[in-house]
Amino acid sequence: MKIGITCYPTYGGSGAVATELGIALAAKGHEVHFITYKQPFRLPSFLPRIYFHEVDVGRYPLFEYPPYDLALAVRMHEVVKSHELDLLHVHYAIPHATSAWIAREMLREAGSDVKVITTLHGTDITIVGQDRSFHPITKFSIEKSDRITAVSQYLRQQTFKAFGCAGCQVEVIYNFIDPDTYNRSKYPQLLSEQLNGGRRVLMHVSNFRPVKRVRDIVRIYARVQEAVPSVLVMVGDGPDRVEAEAEAQMLGVERTVHFLGKIDVVAPLLAGADLFLLPSQSESFGLSALEALASGTPVVGSKAGGLVEVVKEGVTGALCEIGDVDAMARASVEILSDRERWQAMSRDAAADARARFSRDDIVRQYEALYEDAVR
Ligand code: GMT
To answer: Ligand 1 mean position to 304 CA, how many Å?
Structure first.
């Protein structure tokens, strides 16, 4: 099949999933065309059957806000026509599903048919899509998609709750990991050499948006390090990094909290962690948590949305009420101070991630959906 994929190409779970899906589809013989404003961060420079089409919004003094969604629709229209794509698979509804709808309507005028598949990822439904400025167009664009998927049961329910979307079929297709990449035994223990000096490693990876509650992470760590000799490794960057750094200073733990900044390839780091922290306010799935679990790193986080579908309570980690820093710190200490329990959790985490979220199974679900859509 010939497949167009649009996503946010910079840091973020939806871009990571979209890119890895494209790479997996191309490896299976499909032709994949990424249509975005920048090369997706997890896309290597060349792979057979993968093409990248940059969207150029141009510049004009009248435009304080250049209309990216229109430029994207035009690029989609061009690429579908010139490469005879069968479908456009857009990740994150706003504005991608709207641009795809415009492109499809333009193509229909010219007598050609392309299917639009929208994958809902999270804040497109739970936060941004519910903003009054976006709600009607988000609902419209979802309803006009030929197929809709959501990355968790939670997100599917939220979609119906927030948008109604009567008559829509929203299929849950979970996010996935490549079990060869997220494999603890594969990587040398870089962190223990460089940072922790024999102490346990707590880790967080994200784009440091308010929804991630990164200050809670520092607070949890400050309590844990009183009981368990440990360091905290913060991977990524974003608006709340400064606040997290200030929190570490205020709590007097700044010497053992390491902010590494943005790192594209996180598997070797996750393989060196003892615990992954994800105390988010809202999390439709929690791809970073899944990547940690697959790497044999148990997760402590919040009972936020779809995270409860990813982390098995008491088996692969522990989930507490949102904002309950004390409970998360207690759960972390319990896991880290019992070596046998930690080992069992680490083993179960890697096994469960492979059993339920392996790349090949999930990619087959997308292929079946595509086949059904174009039939
Ligand atoms: O929705 C967002 O906040 C952005 C999105 C992203 O691109 O990072 O994250 C969402 O999609 C990920 C991939 O499906 C999920 O793992 C995240 O849980 C989800 N984020 C939220 O729901 C906050």
So the answer is: 12
Ligand 1 near 34 CB (within 6 A): no
For residues 295 and 303, give the distance between their C-alpha atoms in angstroms, rounded to a whole number.
21
Second-level CATH architecture of 184-356: 3-Layer(aba) Sandwich (3.40)
The C-alpha angle with vertex 25 and arms to 112 and 272, in degrees rounded to 5, equals 145
Domain extent listing, the chain: 2-176+358-374, 184-356
Atom of ligand 1 nearest to the CA of 307: 18
pLDDT at 241: 98
| CATH number of this structure's domain 2-176+358-374 | 3.40.50.2000
The verdict on the CB of residue 17 being under 6 Å from ligand 1 is yes
Please work out whether the CB of residue 208 comes within 6 Å of at least one atom of ligand 1. Answer: no
Q: Please indicate whether residue 287, judged by its CB atom, sits closer than 6 Å to ligand 1.
A: yes
pTM, two decimals, is: 0.95
List the beta bridge partners of residue 200: 230
- Parts of the chain with a pLDDT under 70: 190, 192-196
Is it true that 2-176+358-374 and 184-356 share their CATH fold?
A: yes
Using the mean position of ligand 1's atoms as its centre, give its distance from the Cα of residue 128 in Å. 12
Phi-psi map region of 236: left, alpha, beta (phi>0 left; psi -120 to 50 alpha): left
Spatial distance between the Cα atoms of 244 and 331, rounded to a whole number of angstroms: 21
Q: What is the pLDDT of residue 194?
A: 67
Q: Is the CB of 286 under 6 A from ligand 1?
A: yes
Which string of b and e fits 271-288 if b means at least 16 CB within 10 Å? bbbbbbbbbbbbbbbbbb
Please state, in angstroms and rounded to a whole number, the distance separating the CA atoms of residues 297 and 215: 21
The C-alpha atoms of residue 180 and residue 186 are separated, in whole angstroms, by 8
Compute the distance between CA of residue 308 and CA of residue 315 in angstroms, rounded to an integer. 12
| Alpha carbon of 124 to ligand 1 centroid (Å) | 9
Distances (CA, A) of 279 to 221, 327, 332: 12, 11, 12
Pocket mutation for ligand 1, best pick of 7, 130, 262, 285 (most atoms within 8 Å of C-beta): 285
